[in-house]
Amino acid sequence: MFMCSATTWRGLGPPRTGNHMNARLVGCRTLVMVALIACLPAWAIAGPITISPKLALANRPGMYQLLVEIAIEDGWYLYATVAEGSSFRPVGVQLAMPEGVSALTDWQASPASPYKNEQGTTVFRKRAVFTRTIRAESASALEQLEIVVRFQACNASTCLMPTEERMRCPRGQLPGGAVSLADLRQNGVYGFPQSRATVVCDREDLRVSVWNNDEVFVVQAMVWSDTSAKLGETGDGRKIGDGSTLHLDADANGKLTPERDRRYSLYPWPSRPGLYYSILYERGSSKLTGNSKGRGAIRYLPTTDGPEVRVDTFVVPLAEIERSVGEEIRFEVSVSSPTPEFKADTHGISRSRPKFENFHAYALRSNEGEFDVSGVPFGRDDPQPATRAKQDPPEIGSVPPEVFATSWLNTDEPQTLAKLRGQVVMVEFWGTWCGPCVAGIPDLNKLHEEFGDEGFKLLSFTDQSKAGIAGFMRTTPMHYTMGTGSELDADYGVPSYPHAYLIGKDGKLIWRGNPGDHEAMRARIVKALKD
Question: What's the pLDDT tens digit per position in 102-112?
């Protein structure tokens, strides 16, 4: 982590929008401001704001994560909105990007404690955090990046003038430069205290180290065997990337404790960057949940004497797993990569279900020295694979969007609604990972067989690959037409799977919803064919 210098501002606000704050007043302006400040009541110089930008290497060389924290002292708060008609923008951050720097994500705002004041305006009581991922072609281009922070501060007695602060990261070494393999082995990365950590696994392919303080349990894995972030494909045709899992026996009893033990995952799917977790039950687990108060990411670091090195870092709050210093936890870490194909865990083998009795025992201890949690990449703000923007679902009576797919199955040519005008068409969305979708396939086969020769056409769409679906069909026959590798669900605003849209002979939508009730679906088709 490389930190930009923090800016602290107190006292009377600068002139309104368009004039920039200068912490070092000179000449006549200094004399005027000193005279003004001398006449102000105590509360006018009591206050308020510290701005701390930080810049860290993101998941690839040349890709950076910018974090700007606006903190405010007790007794003051930040306005989230300003009076209507004001030329000053709400609390926020902008970037003045030079040539060679581009933004990969929009700003993600994470206010710590928003609340409504007496006037009904939303304000940030303690701090606001803004993050954004950017790409820089060179360090010199990044040095010209200008951060613009706009805000307004108030306390119980007054509101300071709207303020604009401009700053740049200082010249010098910027994050993301290559490091030696020896340095990574000795010191870890992102502030991880490798010299004070416990190494639970140290092999040619993988090293896993753990450490804790009074607040967090931290795991850092060096995956020496994985040098590529390239996506792969599951057996049923879904895109999959690198993944890492921290299996936790939270109460350290050597067996599964339902609703107590957890499984934390980094990048369980390419569309879910960062840290997620699921709670374990007697049979299976909960859905992946993204509300952890921890953080973590998978990163590839360039080295001076070899290929890039993959580093997986977990930060898990002890309060979240209901443990504290002096108690014990048990854990195991497993990692995977589709390209190159690689699976391993801290015991040297890959298991579909880890054995709790074999987990590593670790006593949570009181460690000296601070650990800057914000130095670990957040991950959740990483750029996701480009997808089509999700639209609102088409209204009943409207003409729905035209259909498309990368590849087709059970047809000799691509299908379009325009070609099918005059027939009743059912557009269905599904996935092999969706239990109700798979359970409904026999019913859809029946609808196709019963009405296929009477002017009814069933088109089923998935974003999975043609090869994956063809493999799935070897054990689960599907007789109707399928479009694969399609992002059509975004155009149709699909809220959940399975979901279907029934289109009448005139090309207009007559029904949409879950097609799970076979008899009700059949009745709708019969009526549409008669109309």
Answer: 888 888 776 65
Cα–Cα distance measured from residue 476 to residue 248, given in angstroms and rounded to the nearest whole number: 36
Distance of CA 447 to the CA centre of its chain: 40
Interacting residues of 300 by C-beta distance below 8 A, sequence separation 6+: 59, 60, 61, 227, 229, 308, 309, 310, 311
Q: What is the pLDDT of residue 39?
A: 33
Could you give the C-alpha distances from 517 to 80, 440, 499, 523, in angstroms and in order?
47, 9, 12, 10
pTM: 0.66
The reported pLDDT for the residue numbered 61 is 61
- Alpha carbon 74 to chain centroid, angstroms: 31
One-letter amino acid identity for 89? Answer: R
Give the pLDDT confidence score for residue 145 in this predicted structure. 85
Cα–Cα distance list, 415 to 410, 418, 479 (Å): 11, 9, 15
The kind and range of the H/E element at 155 are: strand 153-155
CA atoms of 339 and 336, how far apart (whole Å): 9
Tally the residues of the chain.
531
Interval 447-497: pLDDT, tens: 999 999 999 999 999 999 999 999 999 999 999 999 999 999 999 999 999
Q: Using CB atoms within 10 A of its CB, is residue 407 exposed (0-12), middle (13-18) or buried (19+)?
A: middle
Q: How far apart are CA 442 and CA 424, in angstroms?
A: 20
Torsional sign, CA 245, 251, 253, 255: negative
